[in-house]
Amino acid sequence: MSDISISCDGRDAPARFHDKVDAAAKSGAPCLWIANHLFQRDPISQAALALSRTQTLRVTLMALTPFTVHPVQMAMAAATLDEYFPGRVALCLGVGAPADLKAVEINEAKPLKAMREAMELSRALLDGDRVTYLGQVFRTNGRSLASGRRPVPLILAASGPQMLELAGSLADGVLISAGTSIAFIKRSLEHVKRGANGRSVTKHALVYAAVDAIGARAHDRMRRILAILLRGSHHKANLELGGSSLDQAALNAAVLAEDWAQAEALITDAIVRNHAASGTPQEVRARFADYHAAGLDEIVTAGARDGDQVTDILSAARIS
To answer: Nearest Cα to 215, choosing from 293, 298, 286?
Structure first.
């Protein structure tokens, strides 16, 4: 079985965040992935809190975007955290949520070049080099990080073929977004392999998870989350590959109207099973095994709202 870690999305108030961190550490999760969503809580601050609160839990900053954070600044943040907590920090870059970028009037229409340059510049700085980098998007002139070389893994969040191949060619690891079907995971990893051309790249994916002794109750917790996620047109291939039949136009209309009864009704049990790890403990463990068999090194669970759910999900992963 691959590693099972957890994620936080920035929506948790301090008490609940601490509760989830404690539950993850106590249950043996290797890593806490802390999401970067504009207007939510800051992931760098939360990373420092989580690292201070635990002894072994690693933290991944997920996914800082060069459209709002300069690569020098993100390298500084990761290097500083690693200086205080050696070997427990990873840096994940990503384009960012389209709605977030739109809210601050940032256009990411052609992200590939910016992401390549951000990865190259961050890597050079974390390697301890005095960097002169003359890219089309980012530039530095003969500067280095005060912390010196820090062995911080660089991970790229990717979904499209070109970005997945970029992850394979440049990153230490790739992160595939939540709500993806097993078939979509497999196809994505084929693109990563093509870009890697023999390089070793760790493979991670966000997986929405919910567990309950009564499987239907777990599915019910997933419906609104998946409704918001799967309505996007970019999930069309994911749905098709997963064998899911979904009226995305009707779903989007229901979500925009906040007609949650209709939106959740469109997310059938079959869709939940295809795009999440949800159900009884035995069903969740079996689903984790399916994701692992697809080629993942680490499953990063998402969707847990409190420490009890974190504990239940991680416990389900260990059921024999």
So the answer is: 286
265-314 residue pLDDT tens: 999 999 999 999 999 999 999 999 999 999 999 999 999 999 999 999 99
Convert the pLDDT of each residue in 176-212 to its tens digit: 999 999 999 999 999 999 999 999 999 999 999 999 9
Longest dimension (CA), the chain: 60
Cross-strand partners of 131: 143
d(CA 91, CA 111): 18
Strand 131-134 to 139-143 pairing? antiparallel
CB 278 within 8 A of CB 302: no
Cα–Cα distance for residue pair 241/243, rounded to 1 Å:
5
pTM of the full predicted structure?
A: 0.94
Helix (H/G/I), strand (E/B), else coil: 174: strand
Q: How many CB atoms lie within 10 A of CB 199?
A: 13
Crossing angle (nearest 10°) for helices 281-293 and 307-317: 70
d(CA 225, CA 294) in angstroms, rounded, equals 23
